[in-house]
Amino acid sequence: MLEALHSMASTTAAPPGARSTRSLYRGDPGMWSWVAHRITGVATFFFLFVHVLDTALVRVSPDTYDRVIDTYKNPLVNLMEVGLVGAVLYHALNGVRVMLVDFWEKGAKYQRPMLWIIVAVWAVVMIPGVYFMLERTVRDLVGGS
Fold first, then answer.
1. Is pLDDT at 5 greater than 70 in this prediction?
2. Whole-prediction pTM value?
3. Are 97 and 16 in contact (CB under 8 A)?
């Protein structure tokens, strides 16, 4: 009985006599999707915070607002916009996956294939998105027409 209680106390413990070859949190795609979900969520939050602040400048000083918006018109900010779109897209797709894992009775069984599906959908959407978002910046930098 004591052994049964011990096994219920920790769901991450290795069975008695079994050797663990790796830690629970090293390299598993599910762990990295969890980390990426948190990072993209925090990045999106900070973008929204800055966006609300700079948009609020319209009411305070329209000239200052115009100057701030003009500072955003450079290649570095364009790259940051691409990163923002990628972060929001990943966060949204992974959020749907997390909801399916939580609320669909077969979600836990299919969580790994769903992860690879969202990565594929993310890539299919981002590849043309990056092209169209960076097309003008690249054309301006290299002097094309």
1. no
2. 0.76
3. no
Higher pLDDT, 98 or 6: 98
> Closest by alpha carbon to 81, among 122, 33, 44?
44
pLDDT digits (tens, 9 = 90+) for 101-121: 999 999 899 999 999 999 999
Positive or negative, the CA dihedral 16, 18, 22, 28 is: negative
78 vs 51, 116, 134, CA distance in Å? 15, 28, 7
Taking residues 12-18, report their average pLDDT: 60
Residue in the structure block whose two tokens are 């979900």: 37
Count of all residues that appear for the chain in the document: 145
- Does residue 20 register a pLDDT over 90? no
Angstrom distance (rounded) from CA 16 to CA 10: 12
Identify whether 13 is part of a domain.
no
Note whether 97 and 115 are within 8 A (CB). yes
Domain annotation covers residue 19: no
Question: Which residues span the domain enclosing 83?
Answer: 28-136
Domain count, the chain: 1
Q: Quick check: is 6 in a domain?
A: no
